[in-house]
């Protein structure tokens, strides 16, 4: 009985600690044209991210997600919220503006297991090869990841 109450209280605490973050989809931002802002974000497991279409013509689709996590895709011009429970790196893009490197990176957890580094980097490079503008953007975002030793 007492343990049950404790677990319920703990559940409320965990829920209260989960944060909701916002990423804007913009025609122009601080990092140039056709851009997610912020392009890199570090969150805790269980947090959610809402993608907000501030301008029309954008949506978001995951490119690579950690093992065990589900891919996602939003509707054009619709706000979209995804909750991320699995630690690791998520790379995503806006399909209509992939050629302009409209891409973003999410780090879930304080650090990312360095064992996954080569695979994650290779997946990001596959996506980056399809960009013809803002070509440095994805590399700059990937450099902000904190890897474990
Ligand atoms: Cu776009």
Q: How many structural units, i.e. domains?
A: 1
In helices, the fraction of residues equals 10-25%
List of distinct ligands in this structure: copper (II) ion
The assigned structural class equals alpha/beta
- According to CATH, the fold-level topology is Immunoglobulin-like
Strand order, main sheet: write it out: 2-1-4-6
Number of strands: 8
- How many strands, what sense, and barrel or not for the largest sheet? 4 strands, mixed
Beta strand %: 25-35%
The second-level CATH architecture is Sandwich
CATH superfamily: Cupredoxins -  blue copper proteins
Q: Tell me, what's the shape?
A: globular
**Given this structure, which CATH class is correct?**
Mainly Beta
Listing every helix as H and every strand as E from the N terminus to the C terminus, the arrangement reads HEEEEEEEEHH
GO molecular function: copper ion binding; electron transfer activity
Organism: Nitrincola iocasae
Domain Blue (type 1) copper: 24-108
Subcellular location: Periplasm
């Amino acid at each position: 009985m007492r343990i049950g109450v404790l677990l319920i209280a703990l559940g409320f605490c965990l829920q209260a600690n989960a944060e909701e973050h916002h990423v804007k989809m913009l025609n122009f931002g601080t990092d140039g044209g056709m851009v997610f802002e912020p392009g890199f974000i570090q969150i805790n497991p269980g947090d959610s991210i809402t993608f907000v279409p501030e301008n029309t013509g954008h949506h978001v689709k995951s490119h690579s997600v950690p093992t065990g996590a589900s891919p996602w895709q939003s509707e054009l011009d619709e706000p979209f919220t995804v909750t991320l429970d699995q630690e690791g790196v998520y790379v995503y893009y806006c399909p209509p503006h992939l050629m302009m490197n409209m891409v973003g990176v999410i780090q879930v957890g304080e650090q990312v297991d360095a064992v996954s580094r080569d695979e994650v980097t290779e997946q990001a490079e596959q996506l980056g090869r399809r960009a013809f503008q803002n070509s440095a953007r994805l590399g700059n975002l990937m450099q902000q990841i904190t890897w474990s030793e």
